[in-house]
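Quick check before the chapter quiz. The format below is the same one you will see on the exam, so make sure you can read both the input and the output lines.
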Amino acid sequence: MSHEKYVRHFSEVDPVISTMLSEYGKYEIPTRTDHFDALIRAIVGQQVSVKAADTVYARLVARYNGILDPSILRNESKEDLREVGISRQKSSYINDLSVQFMDRSEIFENLEDQSDQEIIAALTSIKGIGVWTAQMFLMFTLGRLDVFPVDDLAIRKAMARLYDLPQETKHAEYTNIAQAWAPYRSVACWYLWRSLH
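Here is the expected output.
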């Protein structure tokens, strides 16, 4: 998809996002091909800063010599995972994801042919994977262009600042604003994240 197409779209539907396209340059989300690794990264990143998540993820990968293997992680103890900074709760999520990845491999087959909602429904059947985590998977692993993770605090923070929204603004209002961005809501979110850094 060309950057010029996004520029045209947002110039027609939202001057706030349109301005950011000029300010922050070309939209770019590098997608990941390893589904297991991507979901581990998403679990590690739950409810922590990007910097903290990157640090813990790097320690985890280093511990296993660069390869996250579900056949190993399914049996790892919470104590061992704690050594790299992963909480007991997230450790149980990682254990369960590893089991599911090996025992229910059909969840991860033919994802390209499934709708966003079908993928979210399948992934959220796995312990520790909620809608936000599934949405991050859609955006950063499958490269889906029309995802709006309203539960993402950073997205709401950026929108509140840019659209002058009061603190008590409901999720539905954020979603309503984002409707205009379709079918490129992921693109708008990327610029919102950029605006905070």
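If your answer matched, good. Residues 64 and 72 are 9 Å apart (CA to CA).
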